[in-house]
Predict the structure.
Amino acid sequence: MKVSVIGATGYAGAELLRLLYGHPQAEVVHITSESHTGERIDTMYPHLRGLYGLTLESMKDIEAIGRDSDFIFIGLPHGHAMAVGKALEKLPVRIIDLGADYRFADTDVYEAWYHVPHTHKDAPRVYGLAELYRDDIRDAKIIGNAGCFTTASILALAPLAKEHLIDVNTIIVDAKSGVSGAGRKPNQGNHFPELYDNFKAYKVATHRHTPEIEQAVEGLSGEKTVINFTPHLVPMSRGILATCYATLKDGVMPEQVDAAYEKLYGSEHFIRLLGRGGYPETKYVRGSNFCDIAWHIDPRTQRVIALSAIDNLVKGAAGQAVQNFNIACGFDEKLGLDFTPIYP
Amino acid sequence: MKVSVIGATGYAGAELLRLLYGHPQAEVVHITSESHTGERIDTMYPHLRGLYGLTLESMKDIEAIGRDSDFIFIGLPHGHAMAVGKALEKLPVRIIDLGADYRFADTDVYEAWYHVPHTHKDAPRVYGLAELYRDDIRDAKIIGNAGCFTTASILALAPLAKEHLIDVNTIIVDAKSGVSGAGRKPNQGNHFPELYDNFKAYKVATHRHTPEIEQAVEGLSGEKTVINFTPHLVPMSRGILATCYATLKDGVMPEQVDAAYEKLYGSEHFIRLLGRGGYPETKYVRGSNFCDIAWHIDPRTQRVIALSAIDNLVKGAAGQAVQNFNIACGFDEKLGLDFTPIYP
Amino acid sequence: MKVSVIGATGYAGAELLRLLYGHPQAEVVHITSESHTGERIDTMYPHLRGLYGLTLESMKDIEAIGRDSDFIFIGLPHGHAMAVGKALEKLPVRIIDLGADYRFADTDVYEAWYHVPHTHKDAPRVYGLAELYRDDIRDAKIIGNAGCFTTASILALAPLAKEHLIDVNTIIVDAKSGVSGAGRKPNQGNHFPELYDNFKAYKVATHRHTPEIEQAVEGLSGEKTVINFTPHLVPMSRGILATCYATLKDGVMPEQVDAAYEKLYGSEHFIRLLGRGGYPETKYVRGSNFCDIAWHIDPRTQRVIALSAIDNLVKGAAGQAVQNFNIACGFDEKLGLDFTPIYP
Amino acid sequence: MKVSVIGATGYAGAELLRLLYGHPQAEVVHITSESHTGERIDTMYPHLRGLYGLTLESMKDIEAIGRDSDFIFIGLPHGHAMAVGKALEKLPVRIIDLGADYRFADTDVYEAWYHVPHTHKDAPRVYGLAELYRDDIRDAKIIGNAGCFTTASILALAPLAKEHLIDVNTIIVDAKSGVSGAGRKPNQGNHFPELYDNFKAYKVATHRHTPEIEQAVEGLSGEKTVINFTPHLVPMSRGILATCYATLKDGVMPEQVDAAYEKLYGSEHFIRLLGRGGYPETKYVRGSNFCDIAWHIDPRTQRVIALSAIDNLVKGAAGQAVQNFNIACGFDEKLGLDFTPIYP
C-alpha cells in the first residue's frame, strides 16, 4: 500500500515513520510539512539517517498526494485535518487522522471543548480504538485515531463499563504522561531545566480528553457519564500510566471483575492482562504497541482501581494508527508492530 | 539545645544533619548507626565533608545519649523507635520520632497496618504536623512526626474537612513521590536502570499512610472516614505531589472553599496558597519546608481537586521535625528553615 | 538456526532475547540462569510477556544444550565463559561470548587486567567487532564479542590509526555511559536517588577496556600503544558517547582525515558518518545497532577530536552479537537488526 | 549593603536572589528585566513566593539604580554589561559582572572569541575567581566573575600549572554540564523530550571558555598555553564535572602533585580536596559553593587526570559572585554561603 504522512515532523509523525519503516506492506510515498518544506526528514530527525531519504513536501496540492496514496495519515494539530478530509472526500484514498477532528460522533461536543467550528460534520468516520471498534474500522473511509490519554483510560475502564460493574459517574482518571505528549514545539513549560526533576498536574477538570473518555464509557455502558480526568507531566519522554477509580455496584464480586477483563481482552495480542493485584510500568511497554492492564479491588471502599500503561507515541498514537491501518487493509493486525518493548 | 540523631544514616537522618547545620540554636552531639558504628558521617555522606566531623556511635547505651541530649530525633524504621522512647521515659530528654511508632492515637490501628505489636501504648505523644497541632506540640514529651505522603495529603484536605465542605468518604488521594521516599537501601525495584524513564504505582489500597490520613480527617471533620490512597513512584529523587479528590456537599460554593483555605492557612509561613486554579510543582519547593497548595472545582462533577507539593525529605520528614523542634523549644518556627527552595 | 543464551538474565542477555525475537532465522531453544533456574523469563522481565514463554534452565548440562544448539551466546560475567567454551570444544556448536574471556589475542594481557587465570588459552577465537574483523568472524568457532566502551572507542579511532594519521600514544578516550552498562545487580552506587541528577567518573586509568582498545589500535597502526581511557556514568539507562582525542601527525590535512573515515566506513550500514564538524547524540542511536561517528579538527592544537555514539546494549553488546551471528551464518548482516532507533 | 541585580530573570540572576535571601549583610533594592518590566519576581519564579515581593524594573535609568546601590550584580548576556559598567564609571557603586565582558585582561582575545567590539577597554577590572585572585578582588571597582566551566577547570589545573608540574600544552579539559548552563530560554536543543535520556558534545574546539582557561593557566605557569576544551550536556539541571588531562613533566613524583594541591587549597573552605584517587560527584556539591577536587596519576602514560565538580549556578555563577562580594566588602567569605549541599 502506498501511504503518505501529512504533518510528518511532529513526534507522532516521526514515530509513524519509525513504524512504517518496518512494515512489510506499506511504502511511504509522500511526507509533508508546511514549515519545513524542502528539508530532508533525516536532517530534522537524524535518528532516521541511512533509513529515510525522503524530502518534506507542502500539502498545498493535497489532492495530488491523495490520488497518489492508498492511505493518508494525518499528524496535524486539531482543526486542520477537517480541511484535508473534505478535500479528499471524493477520492478513493482512506484517512487515519491522529488528531481529534474525527473522534467525536457528536460534533457539538467537539466544538464545545475544542473551540473550533467543525467543518466536516457529515464525514463518514469511525473512532479508531482497535480493540473496541474493530468491526467499524474495517471499512471506514475516515478513522479518528483515539488519543493517548484516552486509549489508556478507555481500555482500562471498558470491561467495567460494558459489564455494568461500576457506577460510571464515580469514575476518576488520574493520568500521568511523559513529555513527548506535549509535542515537539519548545516552550518555557517544557524547557529541560524546569521540567527535569519536577512533577506537576495541568488542565485539571478542563483537558480535552475528558469528553472522549465520556463518549466511550457512555457507548459501552449505555449510561450518561460525567467523569474527572486529571493529567500530570512525568519527567520522562514517553509513557502514560492511567490510574482509574470507580465505585463498584453493590454486590459485585472480585471474580466478576476478573472475568470482565478476561472476556473482553483475553484474546487480544496488544492488551496484556497482569491480573488482579498487578502493576503495569510504563517501561515494560516502551516503544511497543502494548497496553498493560491490572486492577485492584479495595474492600474497604468498595472501589476498583484499574491501572493501564502504554507508550503514548505508539499505542497512544502512531502504533494505534498502524494497527487501524492493518485492520482497514485486512492485514494481520500485528504487521509492523510485532516486536518487543525496549527495556531497561 | 543539644540534640542527637538516632539512626542518622538514612536519607531522613542525613537531611536532618543538613538542616541542623544551619540551625543557630541546635548543636548535634551524638549520631548513631548500628551498621556503621565507628564510621565518620562524612565518609558515608561526602556532601557533608568539611562541615561535619562526627563519628557514628552505637545506640546501645541510649540512656547515656539521652542524658547528654535535650532532644532526640529518631530516624529508625518503624517498630524500633518504641524501645528508644520507653528507655528514655524517665529522662527529661524530649523525642521527635520521624517514623510511624508514635503517630497513632489508637495503637490498634497501628498494629493492624504495621503488623508489629505496639510496646509503648501509654506513651505521652502528639501527632507532629505543626500547622494543625501546634498547641499540642509545644509541651509534648514525644512527637510522632507526620509522614511524607500524609503531610501533603492532610494539609491539602484539612480545610475541606474542618469546614465540613466535603463528603469525607469520597476522598481519593492519588499521590506521587520521588524515590528517596523509599529509603537508602538498594533493591531491584529502585535500581537506576529500571526506575529511570519509568513510572508506576505501588501498594494500591494497602499503603500504611492510609490510616494516618484517615485519622487526621476524622479528627478534623468529626466523621468516620474511609479513603483511597494510591502512591506512585516518579523517576526523580525528591518531591511529592498529592492530587486529592472529594465530592463537595450540596450547595457548597467555590468561595466557601477559597475561604476555608485562607482561614486555616492565611498566616502560615510554610504553607503557600496558590489559590483556586493554581498549580503547585514539586520543584518550586525542592529543598525547602514549604507546602504549596492549590485547588480546583469542577462544576460538572461537583468535585474539588486539591493539589499539594512538598519536598518529602524536608516538610515530609526532617524539616517538619525541625519545625516541631522549634515549636517545642519555643523558638521562632522558621529557625534553621528560613531559606528559599532550590530552582531549577 | 537453533540458538541458546547462557546467562540470559543480565541486561545483555535480555537484550539478546529482544533482538532474537525479531530475527527470522533464529529460534531460541535454551536460556539459562543459575540463580533463577525454573523461573519463566517473562516473570523476571515483564516487558517480554506475551512474547516469550521460555523457562530458565541450569547450565549444568551444558553439553546437552550445546548438542541441541547451532549457536551459543554467552552472557556470563568474565571468567565464566572459558569453562563453557572448553566444555563445548569438541561439539560443532559455535560460540559468541559477550564477555571479555575471548577478546584478547595475548592472554597475559587478559590475566594482568582481569586478575583471573586464563584456562582456555589455545581457544580458536576471533575478536568480534564486525566492521573491522568481518573476514575472521565468518568461520570462527569462538567469537569474543567486543565490549561496549571499546566498540565506541575503536570504531572512532580505527580510520585514524589505520591510515597512520595520528600519534597513537597521544590517544585519550573520555567515555560516558548510561547505567545499564554497570549491570542488573543493585548496589549503593547505582541506587536511583544517588545516581539520578548526578554525574561522576570511575575507574580512572584502571578500567579493563583500556587494553582492549590498545590491542585494536596496535593491530591497526602497527605501533605499540598506551592510552588513557576514562569512563563516566551518565544519569540515563542506555547509551555511550566516546570523546576521543589524538594529535595529528605533522602535515596531516583535514581532507585526509575525512577520506580515512569515508574509506573505511563509506559502505557500512551500521556506521553512520556525520562528517567533520558533526555531533552524534546517544538518543539518535537508542535501541539500534548503529554507531554514529563525527570528527573535529582543532587547528590551534593540531588535535583531532572524534565522537562516537552507540547504544551500549545493542552495538555495544547484543546487537553486535547478532551482527556477528549473521556474519558467521552467512546471512545478510542486517537480519533482525534492520529497524530505526527510537526517538525521542 | 544595598545591592541590585541587573538582568535578574535568568537562572544566574534567580540563583543570586536565592543566595542573597540568606545573606545577613545584603539587602536587594532593585532587580531589573527589560522583557518582564513590571512583573513580580515571584510570578516568574514561584519558588520565591512568600520570600520576595520585589517587582522587576527597567534598567533604563541605570544611574539612578547605581546611585541607590553599593553593589551591582550583572546577569546580562555578554556584550551588554560593558554599557552598564561604563555608565556607572563615575559613581562609587562597585560591580560584579557574571558574564564575560570583564573577564579578559586582553580585550583582543575577548573580541576574537565573542565577535563583539569591546567598548570599555580601560575598565579597572579583576578576574573574579576568589581562591586564586583574592587580593585583587578586595579593592576592585569591577569584578569579572569567572565562568562556570572555567571555574571547574582552572581550579583543577591551577596547582599543576603554578608548580610547573605539567606540560601546559598537553592540557585537555573534557567537561560535562547540566542544562541550566545553557540558560532559561527554550529552544529545540533544550526541549525536554530531546535532551532527556540523551548525551552529547557541543562546540568542540570552539567554546568561548577555552581562552578564559588559557589566560589563567598562562598567568599561573608563565607559559604560553593552547588547550583543548570540550563541553558536553548531561541530562540533569545543575552541576559540572571537569575531567582534565595533562602530561607530567619528566621525573615529577605523585607526592609532588599531592603537595601542590595541598599547598594551594589546604586552607580553603570552599575547595574540598578528595585526594589522589578520589572521585568528586556533582551531587555532592549540589546547591552549594563547594568545588570538590581529586586527581589520579597514570604511571603507564605519565599523565595526571584531575577531576573537579561544582554546581554551575553556585560556584560557577551566583555563589562565586557572593563570595567575591564578601571579599570586596571585607566580610567573612562564607557569609550567606555557609550551608550544606543538598543530597540526594
